[in-house]
Prior knowledge:
Two copies of one chain form a homodimer.
Chain A: H1 13-24, E1 30-37, E2 46-47, H2 51-60, H3 65-73, H4 79-86, E3 93-96, E4 102-103, E5 110-115, H5 116-121, H6 123-146, E6 151-154, H7 163-175, E7 180-181, H8 184-190, H9 200-206, H10 209-219, E8 225-227, H11 233-246, E9 254-257, H12 262-275, E10 282-286, H13 291-299, E11 306-309, H14 311-314, E12 324-331, E13 334-335, E14 339-340, E15 343-344, E16 350-357, E17 360-368, E18 376-377, E19 380-384, E20 387-388, H15 395-406, E21 425-426, H16 428-442
Parallel strand pairs in A: 6-7, 6-11, 8-9, 9-10, 10-11, 17-21
Antiparallel strand pairs in A: 1-5, 1-12, 2-4, 3-5, 3-19, 12-13, 14-15, 16-17, 16-18, 19-20
Helix pairs in contact in A: 3-4, 6-7, 6-13, 7-8, 9-10, 10-11, 11-12
Amino acid sequence: MFNRKKISMLTDLYELTMAYVYFKTNENGRAVFNFYIRPTEKRNFFIFAGLYELIKNILEMKFYDEDIEYLKSLNKFSDDFLDYLKKFRFSGNLFAVDEGSIVFPNEPLVQIEAPLVEAQIIETFLINSLQLPILIATKSARCYTVANNKILVDFSLRRTQGFDAGLKVAYSSYIAGFNGTSNILAGELYKIPVFGTMAHSFILAYGDEEKAFKEFAKLYPNDTVFLVDTFNTVEGIKRAVKVIKELGLNKLKGIRIDSGDLVELSKIGREILDMEGFKDSIIFVSGGLNEYKIEKLLREGAKIDGFGVGTELGVSADLPYLDCVYKLAEYRGKPIAKFSKNKTTFPYKKQIYRVYRDGYIHQDTVSHFDEKLEGEPLVKQFIKDGKLVGDIPSISKIRDFTLSQIETLPPNLKDLNNYHKFLPTFTPKIIKTIEELKKKYLS
Amino acid sequence: MFNRKKISMLTDLYELTMAYVYFKTNENGRAVFNFYIRPTEKRNFFIFAGLYELIKNILEMKFYDEDIEYLKSLNKFSDDFLDYLKKFRFSGNLFAVDEGSIVFPNEPLVQIEAPLVEAQIIETFLINSLQLPILIATKSARCYTVANNKILVDFSLRRTQGFDAGLKVAYSSYIAGFNGTSNILAGELYKIPVFGTMAHSFILAYGDEEKAFKEFAKLYPNDTVFLVDTFNTVEGIKRAVKVIKELGLNKLKGIRIDSGDLVELSKIGREILDMEGFKDSIIFVSGGLNEYKIEKLLREGAKIDGFGVGTELGVSADLPYLDCVYKLAEYRGKPIAKFSKNKTTFPYKKQIYRVYRDGYIHQDTVSHFDEKLEGEPLVKQFIKDGKLVGDIPSISKIRDFTLSQIETLPPNLKDLNNYHKFLPTFTPKIIKTIEELKKKYLS
């Protein structure tokens, strides 16, 4: 847990040893680095996220006195370099696509244009800042595309990989179609709706399901979702109805089922609730869910109004990391690329042009930043000479934008079960430069 | 990123709605909750970690004014409850096994004994605090058991799931046998050795491998590990040697190979280095490593002195989450258990007794806390009435303890490729209580 803005130190030692050598040898020309995702067959598309938190951190990053003291104690840096770090503020430019955009592998999602030392120092935390939000927004969008407008709630906080992950998951799932989170800190910090009523321990503490339900409903008369599966689910549903009636309440917000055959139990639950006059009561389910299970439950006719999605969302269990990288693309005005087996990096500061057909994404083309092509340019400038350009939109605006982006996904890319390869093409100018650099380096 | 100790709010809304009902109905007796891991075939053992950070956070947790304001804005809590939260400090007891212990599924790793409201409120962040450290310490120990005392360095920061995860990974890998981390914030905060020299972008920025090596070696004459695979690895190794000789340095710390056939290349590298008189220079490798690949490389005769392990360690890629839970075990002096398909919770406040044979763990038995059995009792008290009992050991002491624990692992449990089931037995007293509770609840 951080008590101050320690982002500058959240980096690999080698970023600083390289920066030190650049500094001492005056090798500090204008560099362009390029953040992108390498292709994976596990996802047909990605939702870009994490940009705005990254921007805030870049604008605020600095080294504190005790950081300088610590770095001095390593005996790896001279005093003039430590003085430089003491005054360090990011002075470069940041170009990126909008938060919430549909994006694809190999596309330049964030580009840093800055003196080499600065561009190098921010590498580690830049990648870290983006990876998890992209993973989670993408997995959330996969849930959203199959959930047919049912309620989706992030239940993952206890199983996220650390505290910061808990916040990033709540934020990223919300902008990509979830309706809220159980995480109250995320509710406080990001103004995300929060959800939650009771756990099994609540029933067990009272020892008696009926008493537990009653005490809860008395204090939350219009706002109780009864957890009905502690002992016997069908009995639990009947008991929820009984309690509401006995208390003379006219509203039963809903029930939650956390185990068992959710198709069967939700159908029985719906029947009981309807029969007892609670047609508006919702049936909410949870327990080991993911996008595949949501799709299957709805396909099999489960009578479910909402899903609490926990662990598998919170760690992106089927794809817990992205092969995402931050590569030098241009230095002192010259294009740079690196070649190793099956992996190429892409030279130049770049633009992405998107062409739609019938409202759906049809093709993305990656060009040199100054080339003009048909289509919508996706890359915009967010930081200029170390200062924010324009405003950071509100979370509800970001969410609206993300949902409008999801509308542009061609149906085949929404397929959860099959990989449909969609990659941008690169302009002849870029391709030609790659070939020339290959010749030069590998000859 | 947190600017203050926001741990109290890092929880699920339902913890607070339940706490509210307990508070208003005076249902606040002494409760015992029990944190444990459910069995998985993916791990033969676990290293327990995360305890000391958890303890610090429990001791410091409080609700701040703006948290109370936010909670008030939800219209779910009365003023007297919000006043209670405002004054909230944890007043209970915490029992646990030592940080760094070898542990097994179903064992009570942490037990909270406190008034029900307090024990409930800390659930979410308690689970979150422990899950990732256990996952990472365990995966690190698996690397350590096959690495044959080679150097192991955590390179995962850029791909951990968020900032806090980066710190937890550096800490947990270090106590479980790693030699250090690339993460300088972890170095500063935890006093962990830090490692790192140069990346491919460094070579590409200078455009010329020889010039890049030279500039680096001039500034770090005795401390350079040259990254040799940017263009052609064998040429790179020869160039590293040439640069050191041309600069008249008598020491080449080492080389790093980040791609290609690491068995072949490390053999060639060793040959070149030995031939040129650099028998002490180390060969360090990185790039998509995990415990399986380390084991395989060494088995195939790779001449490797150290491994940089990144992404797959940092997210525990083959097991990115634990089925770990926090269950009510006792309330107002009465044992509690819950039963659902294949899942039972374990009643009572408990002790674990460990019996060794020939220096290896032979059997663990879980008993009621007051039962006296043969063997070493593993559960100790760390917090009493809200106050720390005893001292928190230094990180080097914790690491020594963990490594001594790994020595007690029976050889079959170190097997990476096959599951060997090792679970504790429960005493007749606990078994009998489970049977009685089952009868009572499920009748």
